[in-house]
Specification:
- There is one protein chain.
- By secondary structure, the protein is an alpha+beta fold.
- It has 2 domains: 226 residues, CofE-like (60s Ribosomal Protein L30, Chain: A); 170 residues, NADH Oxidase.
- The strands form 5 sheets. The chain has a 5-stranded mixed beta sheet with strand order 1-12-2-8-9. Strands 13, 14, 15, 16 and 17 form a 5-stranded antiparallel beta sheet that branches. Strands 4-5-6 form a 3-stranded antiparallel beta sheet.
- It is elongated, with a radius of gyration of 29 Å.
Length: 435
């Protein structure tokens, strides 16, 4: 088996509305290249975007505004560089917004549907040549663990972009358990050897591509890793910015190991005197949850009636609590104790010592919330048990030394999350003072 990569020079400057199949066929004829059955034609995203009218003015707010509009989710950010997920699910620098090989003051955006673009170009080429072809639309992406750019497939038609070899055997007869080959990416990377921004060669023909196993055609969108499988979904800093209080959860349970990992992360919080003064009571079954909610409801009702709060308001508050803590797949009650606090003779230092432990409990809760977020889980801290500490201790079977610090509702992230927070300037808004 051998593979040949042929550059296709002579593609003129592409403008909105141009027929890419026509331009490619003309360049192939001038280069003396005759397409054969099984050839894969590779086309860069830049010319596809130009033909589809995706070359746009930078606008009054510049590139940053275009990047924000094309971004579905920020994965990482450093200075002016944004690694973002686009609406296609692609993770790339600046959401694919690019200023190279385009007129001054203009930017190119990714095609609206790169797989559909590949399908249309392939159909035009096959109709004109009578050949059975593959078509790959490429872009250059960086990689998280390696330096340099490489061509990858963002659109594909007429070939299996992903070849599933699981269940087949290797040369030694061992059964492959996890191997999936990104065939379209391999074709795209090969084309990068002859395609170059400075060479004005936006098209190549890759000849001799043979899937390693019989596989159906699959679009390039199948190369996008599903969120549930993504172990590196966002940077630590972005996770802190993106964490939100969620009051409606997705379907499914909360894995036990996720709760263990979250508690392990929570126990890295700073604490006074080299102590670990925390306890996290995770309620994952109905009985202890009902016991806690009933105790809280009784305490709240008594207090609110004593304050002459109307019954309708009491009922509404109880319903809100039941809707969040009662329906969440899991509830964690974080607690802290102060038994290791130093004894001071004066009230001021004694109170400060107690505050140190309470602050440590708050830090542990923040770590807990962030660890849940890092594992793809949603959460919401509510202050509920702070107002009925004794009832909470009795419902959970805790000693009097434990101080409940609210409750954390936990569950799978909803399909539609909350809108992103607006950018915050802490200095301008008075949250930061730099002296």
């Amino acid at each position: 088996m051998s593979v040949e990569v042929l550059p296709v020079p002579g593609i003129p400057e592409v403008r909105a509305g141009d027929s890419l199949p026509g331009l490619i066929l003309g360049a192939l004829e001038r280069a003396g290249i005759v397409l054969e059955d099984g050839d894969v034609v590779v086309v860069t995203q830049k010319v596809v975007s130009k033909a589809e009218g995706r070359a746009v003015p930078a606008g009054p707010d510049g590139k940053a505004a275009r990047v924000a509009a094309e971004t579905r989710r920020v994965v990482a950010r450093r200075g002016n560089l944004v690694i973002a997920e686009t609406r296609h699910g692609l993770v790339c620098a600046n959401a694919g917004v690019d200023a190279s090989n385009v007129a001054a003051g203009f930017l190119t955006l990714l095609p609206e549907d790169p797989d559909a673009s590949a399908t249309a170009i392939r159909a035009g080429l096959e109709a004109a040549t009578g050949r059975r072809l593959g078509l790959v639309v490429t872009d250059t992406f960086g990689r998280a663990w390696r330096r340099g750019l490489v061509n990858v497939a963002i659109g594909a038609a007429g070939l299996p972009s992903l070849v599933d070899l699981r269940g087949t055997t290797d040369a030694g007869g061992m059964v492959l358990e996890a191997t999936e080959m990104a065939l379209a990416d391999e074709v795209a990377a090969a084309s990068g050897l002859v395609i170059g921004k400075a060479d004005r060669v936006p098209v190549a023909v890759v000849r001799g591509v043979r899937p390693l196993a019989p596989s159906p055609d699959r679009p390039a969108r199948d190369l996008v890793r599903p969120p549930a499988e993504d172990l590196f979904r966002e940077s630590p800093l972005q996770a802190i910015h993106a964490r939100r209080s969620i009051r409606r959860f997705g379907d499914g349970p909360v894995p036990r190991e996720a709760l263990v990992e979250a508690a392990r992360a929570a126990c890295t919080a700073p604490a006074p005197h080299h102590t670990r003064p925390w306890l996290f009571v995770a309620l994952t079954s109905p009985a202890p949850r009902r016991r806690l909610l009933a105790a809280m409801a009784a305490a709240w009702t008594a207090d609110l009636r004593a304050d002459e709060v109307p019954e309708t308001v009491i009922a509404r508050r109880l319903a809100r609590s039941d809707a969040l803590l009662g329906e969440a797949p899991a509830v964690i009650v974080p607690c802290v104790r102060t038994r290791d606090a130093h004894a001071y003779p004066d009230d001021e230092r004694a109170a400060a010592e107690r505050d140190m432990f309470l602050l440590s409990g708050g830090a542990a809760i923040q770590n807990l919330l962030l660890a849940l977020r890092a594992q793809g889980l949603a959460s919401c801290w509510v202050s509920s048990t702070l107002f009925c500490r004794q009832e909470t201790r009795e419902a959970l079977g805790l000693d009097d030394e434990w101080i409940p610090l609210g409750s954390v509702a936990v569950g799978p992230a909803p399909t539609e999350g909350p809108p992103p927070r607006p950018d915050l300037d802490p200095e301008a808004e008075g949250f930061l003072r730099l002296d």
